[in-house]
Design a protein that fits this description.
6-stranded mixed beta sheet, single chain, 3% helix, elongated, mainly beta
Length: 381
């Protein structure tokens, strides 16, 4: 083996001696990482994954250390140690601290609450209902009004605070403005629907998390809670239907069918339809209620008019308030145009025909229609 002193004597201090010759004292052996000794003679003892950062800076430097990915979910499982280092782009909600900043991978907005919509490796979730907005989390004191946001993540939208509710004790923020109880061209209850009106001139009412209840003196109460964003603009309406097949785009929320509650309108005089807030920080408040007479063809003497199958009850345009719609004289049978006329029995409806004589013994057949003004101005005189 050639010593450095011998090389100096032979070549002098000004001679060019290759580093390969000078380092020949190092005999490569298998590297033992992070022990301060360069066993394999490559000048690297603390950067096992080769990403240019040593173990003191790199939160996952050892590719063979499987504990770093113990909390990984989804795409996080395919990451390698070389992709983990300070300054790396961090993909949220995969359970991996890819940029080594030590922050939770499930708290994107940094408000101290982890996402309620993204599962950890063990299937659990956090409490933050909107992890993209730092001002929305369970630590917020109250909801802002008329924004359609559940600021405090308690499953109630636009409720305000305990000391200042968004909704008045007397209600009136929404008005039940039209009822279609029994179709003539549609089957019951698939053809039924009702409309609500926002009488305010300035703010939108967001109906997500509001509860609709039908109370009946014999059949009891059934309710459903609105689980979609239904924004009723000022002086505008929203329509709730059992089945959208007949109304199409005029129906804003479908309450019938599987996974609902069996909610149906009834056809007698013992029914009350109620719109209320969902109790969370504040006790439930009623926005509007109507004890309507749904007896088809027979009106309540002196109050509710009679209504025929296939025609809606409409609230008169000058009576669109939650107080005036309690009075049956404020309602009338619609004079609006037909919104549904079945063309053939593939509509799955029960229909009747009218025969008209024409010269030569020919006949014309007219299918029954349903009349009303869903999401359109009421026509009541």
């Amino acid at each position: 083996m050639v010593s450095l002193s011998l090389l100096f004597v032979l070549f002098g201090c000004g001679s060019r001696v290759s580093w390969e010759l000078l380092k020949s004292d190092c005999v490569p052996t298998e590297e033992v990482w992070y022990d301060g000794v360069d066993q394999d003679c490559d000048g690297n003892d603390n950067d096992k994954d080769g990403d240019g950062l040593g173990v003191d800076e790199d939160c996952w430097d050892d590719p063979d250390d499987g504990t770093f990915l113990a909390e990984a979910v989804g795409a996080g499982l395919s990451l390698t140690a070389a992709e983990i280092y300070p300054g790396a782009e961090d993909a949220w909600y995969d359970g991996v601290d890819q940029n080594c900043d030590g922050a939770s991978d499930f708290d994107q907005d940094g408000d101290g609450f982890e996402s309620a919509n993204d599962e950890r490796a063990d299937g659990s979730v956090g409490e933050d209902c909107d992890d993209a907005v730092a001002t929305t989390n369970p630590g917020v004191y109250s909801d802002s009004c008329w924004e359609g946001i559940d600021n405090d993540c308690d499953m109630a939208v636009d409720e305000g605070s305990i000391g200042a509710s968004c909704y008045a004790v007397s209600g009136g923020e929404l008005v039940i403005s039209e009822l279609f109880i029994l179709g003539r061209a549609t089957t019951d209850p698939r053809g039924e629907w009702f409309e609500v009106y926002n009488p305010h001139g300035t703010h939108t009412v967001y109906m997500e998390s509001l509860t609709i209840t039908r109370q009946h003196s014999t059949n009891g109460s059934v309710s459903f809670t609105i689980d979609e964003v239904i924004a009723v603009e000022p002086k505008d309406t929203a329509v709730f239907c059992f089945d959208s097949i007949y109304l199409g785009a005029s129906c804003d929320f479908v309450y019938g069918g599987f996974a609902r509650t069996g909610f149906e309108l009834t056809q007698d005089a013992s029914t009350t339809l109620i719109i209320s807030t969902t109790a969370a920080d504040i006790a439930s408040r009623t926005l509007d209620s109507v004890n309507y007479n749904g007896t088809v063809g027979v009106g309540r003497a002196g109050t509710w008019p009679g209504v025929n199958a296939g025609y809606s009850y409409e609230l008169k345009p000058d009576k669109l308030t939650a107080g005036e719609n309690d009075d049956g004289t404020a309602w009338c049978e619609t004079t609006g145009d037909a919104y549904h006329t079945p063309l053939h029995n593939s509509d799955h409806v029960v229909y009747r025909t009218q025969r008209v004589d024409i010269g030569g013994g020919a006949y014309l057949f007219y299918f029954n229609s349903d009349y009303g003004t869903p999401n359109a101005p009421n026509t009541c005189p």
